[in-house]
Every structure is written in C-alpha cells, then in structure tokens.
Amino acid sequence: LHTTLIGPYGMPVEFQIRTQAMHRIAESGVASHWMYKSSDAELNEAQKRTHKWLQSLLDIQSTTGDAAEFLEHIKVDLFPDEVYVFTPKGTIKALPRGATPVDFAYAVHTDIGNTCVAAKIDRRLAPLSSTLSSGQTVEIITSPGGARPNPAWLNFVVTGKARATIRNYLKNLKREESIEVGRRLLDQALLKAYSCSVGDLDPDKVRILLAEFKSPGLDHLFEEIGLGNRLAPLVVKRLMEVLTAEKARSRGRPGAIKNVITRYMPAWLGGTRTPTRPLSIKGTEGMVVTFAKCCYPIPGDAIQGFASAGRGVVIHAESCKNIKEFRNQPEKWIDVQWEPGIQGEFPVEIRVEALNRRGVLATVAAAIAGMDVNINNVSIDEHDGRHSSIAFNIGVQNRVHLARVMRRIRTLDGVVKINRKKA
User: Which pLDDT belongs to residue 233?
Assistant: First the structure.
C-alpha cells in the first residue's frame, strides 16, 4: 500500500505499508525506490539502463488504454532482439528478430531445413522468406525425395546455423559434381594417350600419380581437374613422363626419355603427335563447363576454351575481345568444339533499334515468341525522342535458329536495326 497525504500546513506525508519480502525488493530490486531519487551521476551503467527501461514502461502504460495492447508492447520490449514461435506440437523456439521459416526449419533439425519446400504460418501457406513474429505457429512442409537447399536462401536467412549448413551443403554438392566431371575428363585424356581409363591403372601407377600432384586421394585430384585447377591432358602428360623415366632408369637408357615423351605428347603440348579429337562440350557437364556471358557462344560459333580456377572450363567465342588476356597463358588453352547434333537452349543477346512508338515492344516480343524462342530478360534504353534500343536475352538452339529469329524481327514495321551482342 502506497499513498501520499497532505498534512498540516500543506506538508505532504508519504505512507508505504509492505511486508518484509516487499521491503527487500523495494530497497534492492530493479525498481528500488532510491533509484528514483538519485541523479544520473550516482548510477552505474546497468542502473541507468534499468532506470530508462522502467521509465519507458511507464510511458507505454500512460499512452496505451487497452491492457492486451500493453501486454503485446511489453513482450516486444522485454526481448527486443528475439522472436518466440511455436512448432505444431507447441514447442517454443527462440530465433533472432528477422528470422524466416528457413531459419526455423534449421533450428528444429538440419534434415528438415535441407528438405523444406514450403511453410505454413498460423496454418496458412507463406513464402519461405517471410519474417516471423512472436507467438506464431510455424509448420514446415518437406520433400525428402528431391528437395535440397536453394542458394537463394542465403539472401534472407539470419541465423548462423542456417547460413553455415546451406553453404556447407552447396559446397559438398559442387564438390561431388566436380569429382564426377574430373573423373570423366581424366578418363578421356587417358583414353587418348594410353587407350585406357583410370580404372585400368594398376595401384602403383595410381600412387605415382597422386604423389606427383601431392593429392591425398583420387577424389581430390578429380575435384581439382573438375574445377579447372588442373588440366587433364597435363596430368596425363606428367604421368607419362614419370612412368617413362622409371622405365628408362630400369633399362639404363636415360636418353630414351625425351624421345618417348615427344612421340606420345599431343602437338599442342609441345610434342610431335597429331592432336586427337578435341574435348566435346556437353550440356550435362553443368557448372564445370561455363559459357562466357561477354560473348554468349552458341552452337555453330567458333569457340575456344580456357581453364579458370573455380569455374572449370570457360567457353568463349573466338571473336570475343576478352580472350586477348589469355594469349600469354597457352597452358590454359583447351581445344574444344561443339558436339555434333548437340541439343539444348543457349542464351544469346540481341539488340533491336526501333521507333519509339506505342506497342513496339509487344510486337517484337510476340514475333520472338512465335519463333519458339524463350525471352529470358528485356531492357530498354531511349536514345532520343524517336528511337529506343531494346536488348533481348533469348534462348536459341544454334546459329541457324538465331538467324531465322533475326530475319523475322527485321521484317517488322518500326524496326530500324537489329544485331547480335558481341564482346
């Protein structure tokens, strides 16, 4: 009980009636009475923060008429950096403010996060990028068969566990693909040089190969080849040199080494042998074979491959200006060609100069779609009041297909000029 009475001569008298437990809290707790009577200079940093927090609660109480609204404000104010959400079974999960259903999924279990495909917030479907609020019930929908973490999740997850798990999964996935592609590339190089594959090598040769490149195992060497850090023909060349040297030493004829090496080395590696059929580009090689976005090579273009660390083999059109930087690095050149009859859709960029009139974009887009071509992206720049430049990124099958599309667009009314983008 706490009240103030006005005594004789207008003197205010304060009365406080409390138990011993109430007295201890009042004198020593966070709401200690003496704190209200002390100046800021007499308080330490923790006491100042507590004082300000209590004052903010009084301000909220004075401006909030509804008790439920006041309680909601207090929940947010008590834990400003966290949200508390529920699983469908009622278990509470504490997450940082700004957390999403993906963060929630990884907080429940790593496998749930890796296989989540959708989420329900308060029994309603919601995007995985939705921001969670305290008190919500979150249900994660999973697909263990085919779902896997999406790289786009890294743009909105906030918890360290979610971010680290997604990155680790994607890294391992890329490693597995690189190992598989590296194995195929090395098999192909061995087939040309030795008419054998990696599986045909005896264990002694494998150990020699690993020791030469200081690789802990074959998978590591395959990964290096798949990522483009090592070239398969150079690996085979080095293996050939080592084996030939060992044979020459065992026979006591060191001078035979050079003759054997130059006889079996491809000409582009400095030997005398006629180059064998170059590496074909296959769309199934995924991330390891990358098509340069500066020139957008498509089947029918003359192309050149270059080994790039972390990107594998990067394919450029031979007319691309950016390949000049590789002229002094012949060790990175790879002779490549399109596989005969290759199927697929390859991106290419065309630029259309058109009169700036209503409906011209729709007309050109309709003509492109009518040629069985997908439009990946469109951008427009106005040169002046009369003309506009429209850049289309489209998917075509080959140069012949692209030529048909460009001829069709050139016949449209309002089109002044059309050309293909080249670096």
Answer: 76
Are the C-beta atoms of 333 and 267 separated by less than 8 Å?
A: no
Which residues fall within 8 angstroms of residue 137, CB to CB, at 6 or more apart? 85, 86, 87, 88, 121, 122, 123
Q: Mean per-residue pLDDT for 140-163? A: 82
Cα torsion 27, 30, 33, 39 to 10°: value is 120
Cα(152)–Cα(169) distance, integer angstroms: 13
Coil vs helix vs strand at 214: coil
* pLDDT 10s digits, 244-303: 766 666 555 444 333 333 333 333 333 333 333 444 454 334 336 778 888 889 988 888
Q: Is the pLDDT of residue 36 over 60?
A: no
CA 376 to centroid of chain Cα atoms: 19
CA pair distance 398, 344, nearest whole angstrom: 9
**How many residues are listed for the chain in this entry?**
423
Helix (H) or strand (E) holding 271: none
Nearest to 355 by CA among 407, 413, 272, 403: 413
Pairing between strand 289-291 and 387-396?
A: unpaired
Nearest to 319 by CA among 331, 308, 304: 304
Report if pTM > 0.85. Answer: no
CA distances in angstroms from 271 to 188, 231, 242, 266, 275, listed in the order given = 19, 17, 16, 5, 9
Dihedrals phi, psi of 61, to nearest 5 degrees: -65, -40
Confidence of residue 408 (pLDDT cuts 50, 70, 90): very high
